[in-house]
Amino acid sequence: MTALTSIADLPVISNQPLVDTFGRLHDNLRISVTDRCNIRCFYCMPEDNVTYVPREEILSFEEIERFARVAVSLGVTKIRVTGGEPLVRKDLPVLIGKLCAIPGVRDIALTTNGVLLARHAQALYDAGLRRLNVHLDTLDRECFHQITRRDDLDKVLDGIDIAQQIGFGPIKINAVAVKNLVEPEIVPLVQYGRERGIEVRFIEFMPLDSQGLWSRENVLSADEIIETLSREISPLVEIADRDPRAPATEYRFADGIGSVGFIASVTRPFCLNCNRVRLTSDGKLRYCLFAIEETDVRALLRNGAPDAEIAATIRETVHKKWLGHEINSAKFVAPPRPMYAIGG
Ligand code: SAM
Ligand code: SF4
Question: Ligand 2 atom 7: the closest Cα is on which residue?
């Protein structure tokens, strides 16, 4: 047998699952297409003087597609496109079309702040996209402005209406749960979702903001929200037969109208079931949102590396994956990049 002298000698092995040293199967790829954004959520971006990756360092659609094809050959079946704000990336529907056309991709979703959704929804649908997560924390204009430093609430609501009319589904709302701020917003937001058949998913505030504002005291926990919704709307009952590898814990309302989800990374970490790897807009592969280390795949993509080398690099990155983040330990170190630069 010929000796392997480098990872470039490794063959691409289709259908060999990407399993890490803790036995977790990785079939979910999150692709950030930009670190730019058209609003300024305080728990993610600074208000001004934002540092962006230089444009020439951002992966092209062809580079992203090639990386995705290799990842799919290793067993990835689900792709989520995110950012920054993915809809500020020119011609995003073209990329969506390319990703949808990859044989083996079973599920493509987009996470967006919704500001440009009304404008691009039809083109995204025509490109093959069906699943949307729209980020919306409040129905109150003042509160929206306080959080995002922009006055775009109506645009987001229009975007959701238009996406529903076009036929997107499921549409979910992502709401960041920040204590002493969003408590009055929770019930109206969930009622809005129940009226429209949209699940609201509360994401506990995580230490990924660019200004170091996070503290445990600012986290509105899933338990607190469950208590409020159960008291003010209808009791919540945990959905038992959900996918155990999905990050959100889901509950249905006992009155039979709708459900809510919780991504409780701080109070109920789900690392043991994690199935995700992440590609940043500048071509760095990360095994965790909170990872400190990254693997440079842009260099491989731009230096003529064969698919086998990219595949081996994906395997190596998954192999290095840690058991989980340590937000709840004194050892925790926040990653050097904030949420918008990693891709949420
Ligand atoms: N711009 C798009 C958006 O806002 O949906 C996609 C990128 S954004 C980084 C992805 C998600 O991250 C958002 O939906 C928001 O809910 C979440 N997010 C941002 N900063 C967060 C933080 N510090 N803690 C928890 N979730 C956060
Ligand atoms: Fe932009 Fe999304 Fe970050 Fe808000 S959470 S600033 S919309 S990237």
Answer: 113
